[in-house]
Amino acid sequence: MDAGEVLALGLGVTQPWRLVSQHLEIEKSPHELHLTLEADRGAMFACPECGRGCKAHDFSEFRWRHLNFFQHHCYITARVPRTNCPEHGVKRVRVPWAREGSGFTLLFEQAALMLAREMPVLAAAREMGITDQRLWRIIGHYVGAALERLDLADLKAVAFDETASKRGHNYVTIFIDLDRKSRPVVFAMPGKGKETVRRFKDFLIAHNGKPGRIAEVVCDMSPAFLAAIGETFPDANVTVDWFHVVQLFTRALDEVRKAEARLVKMPSAVRWAVLKAKENNLTSKQEAALAELEASGLLTAVAWQIKEKLRWVRVASTPQAAKWRLSHFIRYAREKVTGGPLLAPVLTAIETVEKQAERILQRWASTYSNARMEALNGIFKAARARARGYRNTQTFISMIYLIAAPLGQLVKST
């Protein structure tokens, strides 16, 4: 087997195509290896519409970027024919080494996708020797094609949440399949609120899913989300994610601390100390700050004690115990917030929990772990890191799909 045959084998070239020449341009940096392919004279080509064998009508020259040959950039050039099919007329044939309309070979695009899953897109583009815009186009094509084939016929339990796509009020709402152990994302779109839930229903129907089959939805306590679920998936049980219950009181606590800090001097290191679990990963300064806070009689201490009491509710072992503990927590918290207007954010949080108590308690009856929603933060952070240098929200969404959706073998999506 000579060098030409080895190269042809590596390219996956099959009849009627063959490698006819190779040339290394060493005056360029990096060096460029140019490979030329030709079809056998008089060969028959498959019509791209029906596959019927047809003679070539005419030829045009095309070039594709291929994987590097050692340290050299590699390009493939070929004169690609159009066939004149009796049924479908004149059509450009498809070559086996590249997808239609692409300036890259399939192997190059596969390598680019693998790198994009593991490193920021800007870094992956530099490694491949292309611009990030061209890499985004590759990602967008394969993600879009794979999403078209996504089958949601078995989907019956979903969770969703919004995440910031960039600075400012820019959000993406993401839906996951709670039965999937890995790559759970099934839908993502810009924005937040009721419209995202309606759009998810449309997406579900378009991918063989049945809205009436959705038995459980896990979400936060957003009135817009809850109203949309009632309208869109009326037969589903709704479970409020416990992470968001804790987040609700954590934000209320931070508002109280900020307001009170404008009036009195706070203990050193209290800002971060109150956001952590009392028994978990506190520094010595934070432990001292909490001790000083509890002895101070400040309203921030009251808000912190209420937030910490939530942990007692969370560890309830049965639905009955959880119901009793949540009722006790609400009474306890209401008694604590009589100290003045600074505690108004905590009172609002208590009223929200009281209103959503039934959905919160569904956590103990559900067979699905709310930890899946908490784990989403890791997926979102990874997507943002991979999408470093993205120019719009849609590229962020493409990266979420690329690293966290069940898209299968992307390169087969042509």
Overview of this protein structure:
The chain has helices at residues 3-11, 106-118, 121-128, 132-148, 194-206, 223-232, 242-261, 270-273, 284-296, 299-314, 319-336, 344-355, 357-365, 371-386, 393-404, and strands at residues 17-25, 32-39, 44-46, 53-69, 72-85, 89-92, 157-166, 170-177, 185-190, 216-219, 237-240. It has 414 residues and is of the alpha/beta class. The chain has three domains: 3-97, no CATH class; 109-241 and 370-414, Nucleotidyltransferase, domain 5 (2-Layer Sandwich), CATH 3.30.420; 249-358, no CATH class. The strands form two sheets. Strands 1, 2, 3, 4, 5 and 6 form a six-stranded mixed sheet that branches. Helix 7 runs antiparallel to helix 10 (299-314).
